[in-house]
């Protein structure tokens, strides 16, 4: 049954006995087989796969707009200009007690495509051992041998254009790691010499040059792969998995539709069953409830998925009672165990050609770079700020020597331990920092500007470290029972002492990388061009405490929030089982980054695209959908 067809505004309805017909901006039904809450990275993969079965009716409800309202999302060089736009939630963390109480901006995609429409474009899959560990934790079917074929299936590799003057030595790939899938993978189009220098310099800190990182061993360095199509446009979940199938009659996708709660009914057996969701249709202002005959699938990301569960009555006792929420199922684990990677950088002054900074020196240079990209797919606008990442595996001996025995004890040996990132500009710049909410640091300030203020007419590169062990865990809790109040986000970075020693070691390695001649040759000025922190602030012989002062004042997220609805046995901290079914209720799953029980040793969109694919496979099997 259709509630209404086109927009109908019937005053006559008021005179009838029936309630006033709902005013709709487009046709939607009131019952679907599956309702997907959140049209982001994982959500649109699932929508695509489930509607491969033509009789399976799927509704996707997405809070934000279509990403094209911020057209720069498509372009590699536009990547620097997405923060704070209409497709970013622009969240903030709680004051971070181990980071001088700094409050950090936390970006999150808000719109079709979700964070895959605003992220840094790097594509990776991580090490096989991580997923095999998920299996050991109780998640049968989630090993590397299960996931890798799905990842191959959903991707396509676009070979680089070799007809230019760049050094293509490290643009290598294993063709068997990709197929004819939807998600488009490619190298960046513009490769500054210092980028190639970064790859060669990996040897200074034991990072070998390898041919491929996406086939199960994520230790090494090469030219990084990004989510780009053959015309170097972003391949987001929206572009890859939604646009090609948008005309399927079994698929309805509403944007500007914020899900406000999950509806439950109690069956005769006493179990609560999800029957549908309520949402606010923003263009009409209406509150609408839609039913799902099979399931509600929550894919709202690491912050909003646990928030929706809690608002709907599934969560810690205290969270529900403090906010006056009727309990459906008490589970103390919902929103807990937030697990994230974070980063800090050092910055160096370099020759103009070694950087892409000069592209942004004025409005006219930026306009020219953009025009060159649009005309000929060349020039600095074809490069995102950084997708060349080196992954370092520390030896057992090193881990012991730096005081990271806990990494061995936790079994995190057979993987990379630190990600080193190269950026062809000053990263992060001031926008990434907020003043402290009370703390002080040894430098007397709390933002990066206490160290150095980048000059708009000079050129820089940045070297960034992101410890991948990440034993610290934080939480997502409610500010109120409304989905429109941002949740409290506490990544709790560096609460685990092991994360600190790994980070301090990584800071020392950043300076070794910068000092390697392959990079140092492009720098200007003393100390390999290092302008931040500079030796005046952090001397070469600085104590570990002094180094950690710098890290505290300069850490920002690597945007890998996960774990808030972990896939684990409930007694071990879980919220969903290995079929992603939410404990304690029926017909409800969570299928996104929040189910990750232990972080992969890589950036997360590759893993999340795999999770989307795997989720759809599980759901099809559970309902015996043959397509
Ligand atoms: C700034 C940034 C840079 C990053 N860089 C990289 C990178 O370079 N490489 C990499 O691999 N990974 C990167 N990541 C991480 C990666 O993009 C994310 O881990 C991944 O996209 C998360 O996917 P998801 O499906 O779980 O959530 P999302 O893709 O965030 O999707 C969640 C969706 O749910 C919607 N939603 C939320 N609340 C509601 C509601 N109430 N009703 C309806 N819809 C709702 C949101 O609007 C969003 O569209 C980055 C992330 C960010 C934010
Ligand atoms: C490393 O992990 C892979 C994948 O789980 C496994 O096949 C291999 O045996 C492991 N190697 C060691 C030395 O543990
Ligand atoms: C390579 O590029 C040059 C200059 O941009 C152009 O003249 C030439 O035709 C190109 N060759 C091929 C094979 O595309
Ligand atoms: C992964 O690759 C690195 C670098 O080549 C190598 O040292 C390591 O032994 C490899 N690990 C596995 C499990 O094969
Ligand atoms: C979907 O339908 C529209 C309108 O009929 C059409 O313009 C578009 O090309 C179709 N898209 C695809 C991918 O088939
Ligand atoms: C939706 O489900 C609820 C609960 O089962 C039911 O009361 C309601 O009638 C259903 N609405 C429609 C339109 O099927
Ligand atoms: C490193 O330590 C782990 C855990 O103690 C052990 O399993 C592994 O064999 C060790 N590796 C080497 C090369 O000694
Ligand atoms: C950059 O601008 C400053 C301030 O105008 C000026 O002093 C300096 O010479 C400029 N440097 C370069 C390299 O253009
Ligand atoms: C740090 O992590 C290890 C391994 O998970 C754990 O044993 C230890 O208790 C943690 N320490 C703190 C302070 O959380
Ligand atoms: C570092 O070196 C300086 C100058 O040589 C010296 O004064 C200082 O005591 C040293 N600091 C440490 C922590 O060793």
Automatic annotation (TrEMBL):
Q: Name one GO molecular function term.
A: oxidoreductase activity, acting on CH-OH group of donors
User: Keywords, A to Z?
Assistant: FAD, Flavoprotein, Signal
| Domain Glucose-methanol-choline oxidoreductase N-terminal positions | 109-132, 301-315
What this protein needs as a cofactor is: FAD
Name the GO terms of the biological process aspect.
secondary metabolite biosynthetic process
> Residues of the signal sequence?
1-17
What Pfam families would the database entry show? GMC_oxred_C, GMC_oxred_N
Residues annotated as binding FAD are 259, 559-560
Q: Which Gene3D superfamilies match?
A: FAD/NAD(P)-binding domain (3.50.50.60), Glucose Oxidase, domain 3 (3.30.560.10)
Say if the entry is tagged with keyword Signal.
yes
This protein's record includes keyword Ribosomal protein: no
What the record says about family reads: Belongs to the GMC oxidoreductase family.
| The protein's name in its UniProt record | Glucose-methanol-choline oxidoreductase N-terminal domain-containing protein
């Amino acid at each position: 049954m259709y509630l209404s067809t086109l927009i109908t505004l019937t005053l006559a309805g008021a005179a009838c006995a029936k309630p006033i017909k709902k005013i709709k901006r487009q046709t939607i039904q009131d019952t679907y087989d599956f309702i997907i809450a959140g049209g982001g990275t994982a959500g649109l993969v699932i929508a695509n796969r489930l509607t491969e079965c033509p009789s399976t009716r799927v509704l996707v409800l997405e809070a934000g707009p279509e990403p094209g309202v911020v057209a720069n999302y498509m372009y590699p060089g536009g990547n620097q200009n997405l923060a704070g736009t209409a497709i970013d939630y622009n969240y903030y963390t709680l004051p971070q007690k181990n980071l001088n109480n700094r409050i950090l901006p936390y970006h999150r995609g808000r719109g079709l495509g979700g964070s895959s429409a605003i992220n840094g474009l790097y594509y990776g899959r991580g090490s096989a051992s991580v997923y095999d560990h998920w299996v050991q934790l109780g998640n049968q079917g989630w090993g590397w041998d299960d996931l890798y074929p799905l990842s191959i299936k959903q991707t396509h590799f676009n070979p680089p254009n070799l007809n230019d003057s760049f050094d293509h030595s490290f643009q290598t790939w294993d063709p068997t790691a990709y197929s004819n899938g939807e998600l488009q993978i490619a190298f960046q189009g513009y490769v500054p010499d210092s980028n190639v220098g970064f790859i060669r310099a990996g040897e200074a800190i034991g990072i070998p040059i390898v041919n491929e990182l996406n086939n199960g061993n994520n230790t090494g360095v090469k030219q990084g792969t990004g989510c780009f199509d053959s015309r170097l446009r972003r391949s987001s979940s929206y572009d890859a998995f939604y646009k090609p199938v948008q005309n399927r009659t079994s698929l309805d996708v509403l944007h500007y539709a914020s899900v406000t709660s999950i509806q439950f009914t109690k069956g005769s057996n006493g179990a609560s069953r999800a029957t549908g969701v309520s949402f606010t249709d923003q263009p009409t202002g209406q509150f609408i409830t839609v039913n799902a005959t099979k399931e509600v699938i929550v894919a709202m990301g690491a912050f909003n998925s646990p928030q929706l569960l809690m608002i709907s009555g599934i969560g810690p006792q205290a969270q529900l009672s403090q906010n006056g929420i009727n309990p459906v199922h008490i589970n103390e684990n919902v929103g807990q165990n937030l697990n994230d990677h974070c980063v800090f950088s050092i910055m160096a002054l370099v020759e103009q050609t070694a950087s892409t900074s000069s592209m942004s020196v004025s409005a006219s240079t930026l306009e020219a770079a953009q025009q060159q990209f649009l005309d000929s797919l060349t020039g600095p606008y074809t490069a995102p700020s950084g997708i060349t990442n080196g992954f370092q595996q520390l030896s057992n001996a090193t881990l012991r020597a730096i005081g990271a025995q806990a990494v061995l004890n936790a079994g995190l040996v057979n993987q990379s331990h630190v990600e080193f990132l190269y950026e062809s500009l000053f990263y992060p710049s001031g926008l990434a920092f907020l003043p402290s909410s009370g703390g002080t640091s040894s430098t007397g300030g709390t933002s990066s500007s206490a160290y150095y203020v980048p000059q708009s007419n000079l050129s820089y590169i940045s070297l960034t470290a992101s410890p991948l062990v990440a034993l610290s865990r934080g939480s997502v809790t409610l500010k109120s029972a409304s989905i429109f109040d941002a949740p409290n986000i506490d990544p709790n970075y560096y609460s685990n002492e092991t994360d600190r020693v790994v980070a301090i070691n990584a800071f020392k390695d950043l300076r070794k990388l910068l000092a390697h001649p392959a990079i140092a040759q492009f720098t200007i000025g003393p100390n390999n061009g290092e302008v931040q922190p500079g030796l005046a602030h952090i001397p070469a012989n600085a104590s570990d405490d002094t180094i950690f002062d710098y890290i505290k004042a300069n850490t920002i997220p690597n945007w890998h929030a996960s774990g808030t609805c972990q896939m684990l046995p409930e007694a071990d901290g879980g919220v969903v089982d290995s079929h992603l079914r939410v404990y304690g209720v029926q017909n409800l799953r969570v299928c996104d980054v929040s189910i990750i029980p232990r972080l992969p040793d890589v950036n997360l969109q590759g893993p999340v695209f795999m999770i989307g694919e795997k989720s759809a496979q599980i759901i099809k099997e559970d309902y015996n959908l043959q397509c």
